[in-house]
Amino acid sequence: MSLLKDDKSEKVQYDRPDYPIYIRRFLLSSYPNHAAPSHWHDDIEFILVLSGEMQYNINGEIVVLRENEGVLVNTRQMHFGFSDLKKECEFLCVILHPMLLCATPAYEHDFVSPLIHNASLPYVHLRPAVPWQRDLCTQIKQVYAIKEENAAQMKIQAAFIKIWVLLYENAPLTNGGKKRQNADLAIVKNMVGFIQKNYKKRVSLADIAAAGAVGQNKCCKLFAKYLGQTPNQNLTQYRINKSMELLKTSDLSIIEIAGEVGFAGTSYYAEIFRKWTGKSPTEYRNGFL
What we know:
Strand content: 15-25%
Shape: globular
Helix content: 40-55%
């Protein structure tokens, strides 16, 4: 299960605790309602579509990712993939911490910080028609292909350096960020973080708005702008996603899981679960037995 740091960013559960590397191949249909939970973290995230397509939301901006396209998401950006039409999408997800690039303070100062702190570079939409972006996507595929090899960690670090060189040489280095957007985004992060820390409890719209120090009306407007959801939809999605993890990995009963993720009753939980996933909790669990 995902954990949160004190600043409410996600603490990525790396493949090995001693190397900040996370590599997976996913189907979008594995998420409730074909939508991953909104999240943010200190790591660089790469998504590469292998088949199908998805929409990807970065700080409220939505890009459509088609086959062989991808996105590079910079550090500390709010992001998630989804499909409004519930289309299937198979994709690679590679998450790497920038510390892998910081062999010396000079490397960090000259080549890493200028990009990760560039407010004008929240993400890069990667298209195969652009040569350097195509090369970057090739490196993402290579990272997935070598993840089980001997000395994989060193090979992945080398590939990450190649990716960073491509980004450094081709991405804009200006830093003309939008202060208003950054302020609003910080509020959204606080409210989403509150939901993710307190989803097991009774949570009201007033509670969520208070976490962002805004009124309920502005709270709803910010969720609509940045996440395309109401605060309650975000809360429900997160609870359903957590319950799916428990259904797959625990021996807890359906009644226990409903209470564990914040639903007041089992019948209501089952009704909402089916609405979001198209299956009952029992049907979903039986698919993993």
